[in-house]
Amino acid sequence: MSILNKKQIQYIIFGVIAVLLPILTQAKGSTITLLASIGITAIATLGFNVLLGFSGQISLGHGAFMGLGAYISAYFVSQMELPFFLSLALAAIIPFLVGFILGLIALRLEGHYLAIATLGFAVVIEEIFAELSEFTGGWSGTKTTYPIIFGHKFDKLSVYILIIIILVILMILTYNFMKSATGRALVAMKKSEHAAQAMGVSLFKYKLLAFSISTMYAGIAGSLYIHFFRFAEPKLWGITLSLDLLAAAVIGGLGTIGGAVVGVAFLKVLPTVLQMLPVFGDFDGLAFVLTGVAIVVFVMFYPRGLINIPNDLYHKFFKRKRAENEEVKA
Amino acid sequence: MMNSVLKVENLSISFGGLKAVDDLSFEIGDKMIYGLIGPNGAGKTTVFNCITKFYTPNSGKVTFKTNTGEQINLLEHSVHQIINYGLARTFQNVELINDLSIIDNLLIGAHSQYKTSALQQAFLTPRARREEKEHRGRAMDILNQLGLADKANEIAGSQPYGVLKNVELARTLMSRPKLIIIDEPAAGLNETETEALAEMIKKIRDYYHCAVLMVEHDMGLVMSTCERICAINFGKKLAEGTPDEIKQNKEVQEAYLGKDDDDAEN
Ligand SMILES: Nc1ncnc2c1ncn2[C@@H]1O[C@H](COP(=O)(O)OP(=O)(O)OP(=O)(O)O)[C@@H](O)[C@H]1O
Ligand SMILES: [Mg+2]
Question: What is the value of pTM for the model shown?
Fold first, then answer.
């Protein structure tokens, strides 16, 4: 019982279920694609949550960092013929460094410069992706293959399993990190800058740390994206993707680990379900509109996010019962 | 005073035309409990904010004897560095992290004491675990000392103001300070709680070997705990001395004229 209460164990159980589900149900290719896409976006959202949910900063350019990771990974695997895991590591480290440098400039200034700087970065980098055709294939995009790991050629299902394994590892690491002294410093900074400063937290240093870490997650997600879909083009990594990450983090539950997964799943599955209804069947921008509406609804009416609904419901009924009992006593 | 932990010299700061602190000097001896008093708006909190670099004073010098015995001018350091040298503070309006537990709030107070990196912490390396355990242990000790142990796992936001004031006081001790500066620790406490606080402050000084600089409106508390007191008004020093000297000082009496001793303001 108590071992099941450990978050790390819960994340592993989640991972096992996520892996077994498509295998046992012999899911169609399109279902695996949907699940993989949720897993990949959840990794980026997890990182976004470190930034927004724990340190209270906003980025509008995380999609661009995902793109950076994707192209880096494809380039090193296909053109430099580096092993997959080395390319994945580079796809994490290089965006981390780029994020660090961008943060170094944007976070010196107080206020919401990070949002503006990252938005600018996203616009510029989209152009760069298009121009650097040797590296990215330009507007027509670039292709790569499923990864080959230790001589073993992966297929669609095995890449999906890899995505889930990496997601679960990152969930556990993020959880440990958030419960650590560094994580507490981030939370303190978000809730009371005065308290954080008085306790020795340098706002600049910790904002920079949170931002660079979150760009690293985006890079990893990008690498997995391109090795699952085996194709990428510059327009994938624009503001729409960045806003999706923001929306998923908010809807799932800011500052929670599971919320990243739940929020992404909600945003990916709901449009698919609604599209099956005759009313919405031929409504093209449905997902986009829905995302916008969902953000507003959650921010206004349920800022704690989807992940907290079961817990809140439980407490509501539990508390009410207790209150009634107390009335009886009195 | 030969062995002072903090020496404030000619400190001044103005906001627009208002001189909030005006050429103020005072000195706090090692392990001394020192009071800074004055009517509302006298500039007491502003003095705290200058010492801890939340504000940058227009002029003056603040010499602090650090943990390692070095003499430094605090005004040459950034706000987040101050605690590293052994000076921790509380806030008049309580700055805690409401949605964390009380023990986690204390652990934030230990931030300056952590040596492991974020990476070591994420991978839960043995060193990171040991460090976390050590500080958790210290936090429980401090909560025990201050009679808050049973509240360790309560969410800070759910606790009454009086408890939060004490938690904030407890938090300062996590940094192994040489000097703690506390802004109106008795605000929101009733008479018995205030008496208990007086005992606690003395106990803290004896047990943790730190000096205490306190701003407080409750004259009973100030007179019974402080060894020396500095009274200010309109940012200027009125008098400095032992509690008895301060009580008998004409200017101090005038500044407080028409005010009851226990006219504590929140
Ligand atoms: N950041 C600021 N900007 C402008 N004026 C300020 C600022 N901080 C303090 N003051 C002014 O400086 C004066 C001293 O304020 P301060 O808060 O230090 O008083 P205090 O002695 O702590 O009073 P109290 O007992 O009510 O807490 C007041 O007139 C206040 O309005
Ligand atoms: Mg004040």
Answer: 0.89
